[in-house]
Amino acid sequence: SQTIHQWPATLVQPVGSPLSLECTVEGTSNPNLYWYRQAAGRGLQLLFYSVGIGQISSEVPQNLSASRPQDRQFILSSKKLLLSDSGFYLCAWGTASTDTQYFGPGTRLTVL
Amino acid sequence: GIQVEQSPPDLILQEGANSTLRCNFSDSVNNLQWFHQNPWGQLINLFYIPSGTKQNGRLSATTVATERYSLLYISSSQTTDSGVYFCAVGLRGGGSNYKLTFGKGTLLTVNP
């Protein structure tokens, strides 16, 4: 069966520091991968998606970037964090055939 | 872009009561999913339901795509049903991926 992992689970970072969040998927090949952010107001917003290694599409211009160095690895990064980057970051995977997305456990980021 | 509205925003029930959550969307979609976000933040897939009716235990869902709404029914609610329920609609992007747009969710509290 497929599983999706995210780490770290929680992170507290100072403003201006770099960020690297990692997401990995097991049990499937060539998945579509997604990064979402959930702010305090509850809604989830799609940040990035990827349909293959090195292929990244950005949905919202912002202080963040994403990379996909391996088939089942998706990384969310920032060079300098802002207070507004605080939130709950969720990674998801899906396939073209299933039309369903499955979410990881999330990373709670607090920028102070 | 497509708009997704969920109602009610908040709902408080006594254990054993039934409830109906609604999701309206502004345009035709390829897909619709219902999720439950538990107190730890994990998003759990409930239904993939672009049209028709499905049932899973005490939960059932109906989507009327032509009228652009979906309903989630919870019967004989339990305290473990508490959390935020999200509706998300999917639109296929160019190629093999599709993107989810989330509503703001319904916060359900079930009291013993």
* Biggest sheet statistics of chain B: 6 strands, mixed
State the secondary-structure class of chain A: mainly beta
Low-confidence stretches of chain A at least 5 residues in length (pLDDT < 50)?
A: none
What proportion of the residues of chain A is helical, as a percent range? Answer: under 10%
**Which oligomeric form is depicted?**
heterodimer
How would you describe this protein?
The complex is a heterodimer of chains A (112) and B (112). With 112 residues, chain A is mostly beta strands. Chain A has strands at 3-7, 10-13, 19-26, 32-38, 44-52, 55-58, 65-70, 73-78, 87-94, 101-103, 107-111. Chain A has no helices and eleven strands. In chain A, the strands form two sheets. In chain A, strands 2, 4, 5, 6, 9, 10 and 11 form a seven-stranded mixed β-sheet that branches. Chain A has a four-stranded antiparallel β-sheet with strand order 1-3-8-7, with no helix packed on it. Helix content of chain B is 0%, strand content 60%. Chain B is built from no helices and eleven strands. In chain B, the strands form two sheets. In chain B, strands 2, 4, 5, 9, 10 and 11 form a six-stranded mixed β-sheet that branches. In chain B, strands 1-3-8-7-6 form a five-stranded antiparallel β-sheet, with no helix packed on it. Chain B is globular and about 45 Å long. Chain B starts with a strand and ends with a strand. Classes of the chains: A mainly beta (112), B mainly beta (112).
